[in-house]
Amino acid sequence: MRTQKRCLGYVALVVDDYDRAIEYYTDLLGFHLVEDTPQPGKRWVVVTPDPESDCNLLLAKASNERQGSFIGDQCGGRVFLFLQTDNFWRDYHSMKEKGVHFCEEPRQEEYGTVVVFEDIYGNRWDLYQNA
After folding, report:
1. Number of alpha carbons in the 13 Å side-chain half-sphere of residue 85
2. Contact 57, 31 (CB under 8 A)
3. 28-64, pLDDT tens digit by residue?
4. What is the fold, at CATH topology level, of the domain defined by 72-131?
5. Which CATH class is domain 7-71?
6. Contact yes or no for 116/77 (Cβ under 8 A)
7. What sign does the CA torsion over 31, 48, 33, 101 have?
8. Domain VOC spans what residues (predicted)?
């Protein structure tokens, strides 16, 4: 019998600047800064949409040209991350008022309400609420 819980703990997102990324994800998307710890030559920066969540976003500053080439295109132009909400319209309007770039108008799908937006780097996200 399995008793250990498994989940994704961190998803790394390559960024160009720690402070710029922290500001965007906390101020515009409403994420919480979980940790910002200096390490030799880098920082361990973690944000999360919900402090009770087990899944966090690790903001990883590109340390070379190759890594830098993936900033904003970590998934080849496809939607990369999916931000689930319990109140789509609250979050949509809040993000829109703060200047988040939406690629389309919200739409109703079989599975729920969804809209695609791009983060500060151009990574595509879905904001969605299950039906």
Report:
1. 20
2. yes
3. 999 999 999 999 999 999 999 999 988 999 999 999 9
4. 2,3-Dihydroxybiphenyl 1,2-Dioxygenase; domain 1 (3.10.180)
5. alpha beta
6. no
7. negative
8. 7-130
